[in-house]
Amino acid sequence: MVNLMAGVAIDDLRRTLATGAPIIRAIPLPAVRERRSVTVTCPSHPAVDALFEQLGGALPVADENAFNVFSALTGTLTAHYAYLATITSWATDHGIAPDAADRYVRGLFQNVGRSLNDESRPLHQLAADHETPKGNNERIRTTWFDPANAAALMEALDGLLSHLEQ
Predict the structure, then answer these.
(1) E strands along 72-125, which residues?
(2) Which of 40, 65, 91, 94 could make an S-S bridge to 27, C-beta 3.0–4.6 Å?
(3) How many beta carbons lie within 10 A of that of residue 21, not counting itself?
(4) Count of helix runs (H) and strand runs (E) in the chain
(5) Host H or E run for residue 94
């Protein structure tokens, strides 16, 4: 049995269903329909992992604590879209036509997203590679995504993880 329900632990589902059958948790993301999404599974199961390998990859984890960390990471997806919507709105507030702002922001971040395929460079290196010293990207990163905002993000993730572990 594959459990795709967020926040429903294996033992809880086992009790509810009164079953001894193997229960595997999984986090398939929307891109799985395009066979471009790594799916976290817990615990590893040959048939389940093989299925998700065909759909973009399987990332089996050993226990539900690790699974919950990945589940918390998944909770950041809509914040990313809200960020993109906010900067698009900012552009329209400064006289750019909504369709032009939307098109530009989508293209900008689709192209940045492609760089994520280069797994030879860690994420912090990708960020550095997109910055010119004292340039526009460095300025936004250091003034907006400062240590306080990074700490607030970590605190939000810790709060979500705590909720998932209940």
Answers:
(1) none
(2) 40
(3) 7
(4) 8, 4
(5) none
> Within a 13 Å sphere around the CA of 81, how many CA atoms are in the beta-carbon half?
4
Tens digits of residue pLDDT in 32-69: 999 988 999 999 999 999 999 999 999 999 999 999 99
Rounded-to-integer distance, Cα 124 and Cα 15, Å: 43
**Under a CB-based contact definition with an 8 Å cutoff, are residues 61 and 82 in contact?**
no
| Number of residues that make up the chain | 166
Compute the distance between CA of residue 60 and CA of residue 82 in angstroms, rounded to an integer: 29
Pairing of strands 39-42, 24-27: antiparallel
**Residues 1/24, Cβ–Cβ less than 8 Å:** yes
pTM: 0.87
Q: Distance from CA of residue 21 to its chain's centroid? A: 30
